[in-house]
């Protein structure tokens, strides 16, 4: 009996390996062709920087990326997602959760 569920049977997720610090989108990256109303969703909110063709986490930008509000913040990207899907994401994935204020962003999304 399997104990690990297949993520993409229940979730969709937004693009990852984002190198645009404004996080201007919240489109479905995978799995393709699913109805967002039928699934939970995960927002990939971590910024990468391209170093010689390899995307690596941008630790220097983590404080701004993990902010509650402002351009490129968790709150700003979540607002885009709410505009598309009419609801808050179920999960927001970040890098460097100890930098910036991702837990305050979570509290804002939860209304606490």
Layout of helices and strands, plus pairs?
Blueprint: E1 11-13, E2 40-44, E3 48-51, E4 54-57, H1 62-65, H2 74-85, E5 91-93, H3 102-110
Parallel strand pairs: 1-2, 2-5
Antiparallel strand pairs: 3-4
Describe the model.
There is one protein chain. 22% of the residues lie in helices and 17% in strands. It is an alpha/beta fold and 112 residues long. The chain has one domain (11-30, 38-110). The strands form 2 sheets. It has a 3-stranded parallel β-sheet with strand order 1-2-5, covered by helices on one side. The mean pLDDT is 95.
Main beta sheet: strand number and arrangement? 3 strands, parallel
Mean of pLDDT:
95
Strand adjacency order, main sheet: 1-2-5
Shape: globular
Helix count?
Answer: 3
Kindly report how far apart the N and C termini lie. Answer: 39 Å
Number of domains: 1
Task: Provide the gyration radius in Å.
Answer: 14 Å
Beta content comes to: 15-25%
Question: What's the short version?
Answer:
The protein has helices spanning 62-65, 74-85, 102-110; strands at residues 11-13, 40-44, 48-51, 54-57, 91-93. The protein is α/β, with parallel strands linked by helices and 112 residues long. It is globular.
Features:
3 helices, two-stranded antiparallel sheet, alpha/beta
């Amino acid at each position: 009996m399997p104990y690990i569920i297949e993520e993409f049977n229940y979730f969709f997720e937004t693009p990852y390996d984002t190198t645009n610090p404004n996080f201007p989108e919240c489109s479905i990256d995978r799995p393709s062709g699913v109805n967002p109303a039928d699934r939970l969703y995960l927002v990939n909110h971590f910024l990468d920087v391209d170093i010689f063709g390899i995307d690596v986490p941008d630790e220097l930008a983590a404080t701004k990326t993990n902010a509650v509000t402002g351009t490129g913040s968790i709150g700003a990207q979540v607002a885009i997602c709410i505009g598309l899907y009419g609801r808050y994401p179920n999960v927001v994935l970040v890098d460097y959760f100890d930098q910036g204020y991702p837990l305050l962003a979570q509290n804002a999304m939860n209304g606490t």
